[in-house]
Amino acid sequence: MKQSAQKPDLPWPLNQNTELIGLISSISGEHKKTVTSKLLQEEQCLGWNVRTELKKSQLTPHTWSEGLIQFYATTNAFLYETSVWNRRPLKLEIRNWICNYLKSNFPQPLKILAFGDGLGFDSLQWSSTNHDVTYFEVSADCISYAQQVFQNNSAEINMIQSLAELEPDSFDVIICLDVLEHVPEPSEILADFTKWLKVDGLLIANSPFFLVHPNYSTHLKSNQKFSGCLKLYTRLGFQPVCSRLFWDPIVLKNTRDTSINPKIPWGVRLGGRLLASGRGNAGKIHSYIARLKSRGESHWVDDLNQLLALEEAGSLE
Predict the structure, then answer these.
(1) Is 148 inside a domain boundary?
(2) For 173, phi and psi rounded to 5 degrees?
(3) Which of 17, 235, 267, 301 is the most buried (most CB within 10 A)?
(4) Alpha carbon of 198 to those of 167, 192, 193, 203, 227: distances in Å?
């Protein structure tokens, strides 16, 4: 196989397309030419593979159903979407912000649950900064991918198979990125977080509820009402601590006290108002801005085009 361009500041296999193609091919069973083509489509349009596969399944986008549960269990489309997303500059910016926040406020190692971490790159970064990390994910393909990520990056991370393994008051921090917008009842998961977190432990979440767009076809329309909604968290005893402007992410303290009227930092309040304005049809503007911010780097597209040309010429093994 042709050795493609490398980016050493990214972890394996994101740092080189040939390695990424090989890993996805080994998990999905798809030919490397197919994998290369799908990765190229994903780099050019984030969400393309999930959208395409959902349409083939004849499922209604942005709507929860039993069929969607089956789709999550059987599709390999998220291997492409989340691989590409995890090397997008915005995703790296969010992850680095979280690392810097934890480093600035907690000099000692923390016990962290990375909930719904997909391919494991969030867990990998928290582990690289000496935290005790537990990874949880439901997709079998994503778990297989994450196992290889941890092994090839020499990371020691606890991987659990069932939420029943989690005990009350066992984590200092729960980090939940790009998960809640996919589930039918976000408050149920948040209620579990209050149990697993220690009192005054932190929840760090990124949940683009407003982003109901054809390219993100598994984001639920029913959750758009939670965009900028602090009550989703405060009614369960989560107190806002700080956030980036668009709550990507937001940091909340687990007080377990639902009677207090929390003091909301002005930056969090401003971000909430901006996000709330993206509910309903007004979300088209927010979605457009989000897609601009989520753009990738052109050299990955150029490299994949070269690899695909070699594959089609029979030169890529």
Answers:
(1) yes
(2) -145, 135
(3) 17
(4) 10, 12, 9, 10, 26
Cα(92)–Cα(98) distance, integer angstroms: 10
Backbone angles phi, psi at 170, to 5 degrees: -110, -5
Whether residue 168 lies inside any domain: the answer is yes
When divided into structural domains, the chain yields a total of: 1
Pairwise CA distance, residues 25 & 46, whole Å: 19
Average pLDDT per block of 10 residues along the chain, 317 residues long: 69 97 98 97 98 97 96 96 98 97 95 98 96 97 98 97 95 98 98 98 97 96 96 96 97 93 93 93 84 94 96 69
User: What residues contact 56, with CB distance under 8 A and at least 6 apart?
Assistant: none
Q: Which domain holds residue 233?
A: 89-293
CA distances to 131, 185, 204, 227 from 116, rounded to whole Å, are 18, 15, 13, 20
Q: Does residue 278 form part of some domain?
A: yes
- Its pTM stands at 0.95
